[in-house]
Every structure is written in C-alpha cells, then in structure tokens.
Design goal:
Shape: globular
Mean pLDDT: 87
CATH class: Mainly Beta
Distance between the termini: 46 Å
Region (Disordered): 26-45
Low-confidence stretches: 1-36
Number of strands: 17
Length: 290
C-alpha cells in the first residue's frame, strides 16, 4: 500500500494509545464500575477519563453533563486533525454519534446505532460525507456476539459508494480473544458479488494484534463502549479500546508490500490501578472526579 496509508496507521496507533471499554447498557453510569483491577485494589472515587495529554498537549478530551457523556475529541494522525464525536440519546441510550474533523475537507462520519439490553451495539449505519461526492458513502453494519452475548466476534459492513443505491463493497472484522481482551482483529476488505455476498477472492487483509495485556483498569471503561465501537469502525487500530485491560503493544500488518509496525506501550498506575502516565511521564491520563 502507499506511504500515506502506512503513516496513517502508525499515527492512529500512536495517538490512540492505551486502552479499552466494558460499560453497562446505561450511558448515565457509575464510572468506577469495572473489572479491570485486581481484588485487592481499594474502591476508587467515582471518576471519568477527562483528558489525555502528550508533552502537555491535549490529544483526547471528553465532556460530560453531570454523569452523562456528551462528546469526545480525538486526534487523528499527525496532521493536527482532531475529530469531535458528539452523541445523541434516546431513552438514556446512545442513538447517534457524529464525528466532525477540525480541518477543512475532512470526512464527516454520521452514525446511527442500536444497542441491546446489555449495552452492545447490534446494528449501525454510517453516512460518510466527503468534499468530493465520489468519496462519500453509506455503510450498514451487523454485529455478531458469542453465546454469552458479551464478546463481539464479527462485524460485517456493506457499503454503497458515490451515491449509488446498491452495495458494492464490504469490510469484515473478525475478532480473537485472550480471556476477555481482544487479542486480534482481522480486517478483510473487498467487493461484493452480484447477489450482495462478500467475494473473499477480492479481499485484502489487515491484521491488528493487541498484545500482552496488563491486569489493570482500562481508563476507557469510564466512557461509553458504544462511542469507541463506532470510532473503531472509522479507525480499526482502536479496537483494543473495547477490551477491559491495557495492551502493552499494538502490532499492525497491512496488506503487502507495506511493512508491519509494532508499537510498544507502557504505563504507570495510581493506587487504584488506573494508568496515570506512560513510564516516561510524557503521555498522561487526567481524570475528573464526579
């Protein structure tokens, strides 16, 4: 693949660093309820992840109205483009998420999502709007969970492009777990057959491997899982964010001839087993007590 594609993957991994999600079905939630710590950890005060900074520059920022999540701002790549995702609720469940970039000409992603009683997304639609109509699309997603209803095992996307009324492309994400954490996401992209089925002979594979998880609390468990599920559909290198713990490396293997990239990650924790920084204390997690 091209140089720009590889740089985007590397940048997405670097600035997305660290963790994952495991929230309840309610988005007005008890932020300290999670299973990321060990049994000997004292109960922390109710808190949410508010900011992530790198050398004192904000990389991510999350806004609440009381305990209700309102929006999240995430840096996308190395070109100083920031995406802000704003949520809309119906009956205390997230129903829409719209991601808007800060740079002129950025693609806009407008999601409609449906959650089940466990807080899992079971269907979604995304309208991607680009400056050029030929780059715009409408995608429909179906989600498959395991028998327990807890682990996401597959997401199938079918896409209509450039204003066409028929689906022509697909993306299939298949997940492998180590315990409760996503160890591997295999992302196959290709074209559909005339009957609308994935033509796997046309598929190109990108492998995302999230390795060597710790046993500590994932800061993103204080934020709605649905928000990061949608963001991961835009940036698949972020799928580790819907795991309960923190990976200590992210390995990305794009289609040939682009080389694989492995990004190590480190953490320092507070008394409650929440990450507060990387080992060099350049990247920092800032929490808000509720």
């Amino acid at each position: 693949m091209g140089k720009n594609y590889l740089l985007k993957i590397i940048a997405g991994v670097f600035f997305g660093l660290m963790v994952s999600c495991n929230n309840s079905s309610e988005d007005q939630f008890e932020p300290s309820s999670n299973n990321g710590g060990n049994g000997n950890t004292p109960t922390p005060p109710a808190r949410v992840l508010e900011k992530i900074t790198l050398n004192n520059n904000v990389q991510e920022e999350y806004t609440f109205n009381g305990t209700a999540f309102q929006k999240g701002m995430l840096r996308d790549g190395t070109n100083n483009n920031y995406y802000t995702g704003t949520v809309t609720y119906i009956n205390n469940k997230i129903s829409k998420i719209k991601f808007i970039g800060s740079l002129t000409g950025s693609m806009t992603y407008d999601f409609s999502v449906s959650e089940d009683s466990k807080g899992n997304v079971y269907s979604a639609t995304c309208t991607g709007t680009a400056t050029a109509a030929i780059d715009s699309f409408v995608s429909d997603y179906t989600f498959t969970y395991d028998a327990t209803g807890k682990k996401l095992v597959k997401i199938m996307e079918k896409r209509k492009v450039a204003g066409n009324s028929a689906y022509s492309q697909f993306t299939q994400n298949t997940f492998t777990y180590n315990g409760d954490n996503i160890f591997k996401a295999e992302c196959a992209k290709g074209t559909l057959t005339g009957t609308g089925e994935p033509n796997m002979a046309t598929a190109k594979m990108t492998l995302y491997s999230f390795q060597n998880y710790d046993s500590k609390v994932n800061p993103y468990t204080t934020l709605p899982k649905t928000f990061f599920t949608a963001w991961s559909l835009v940036r698949p290198e972020s799928f580790y964010r819907i795991s309960p713990n923190n990976p200590t490396s992210v390995y990305v293997m794009p289609p040939t001839p682009a080389p694989a990239v492995n990004t190590p990650m480190t953490y320092l924790y507070d008394a409650y087993n929440y990450p507060v920084s990387d080992k060099d204390q350049a990247l920092k997690y800032i929490y808000r007590t509720l």
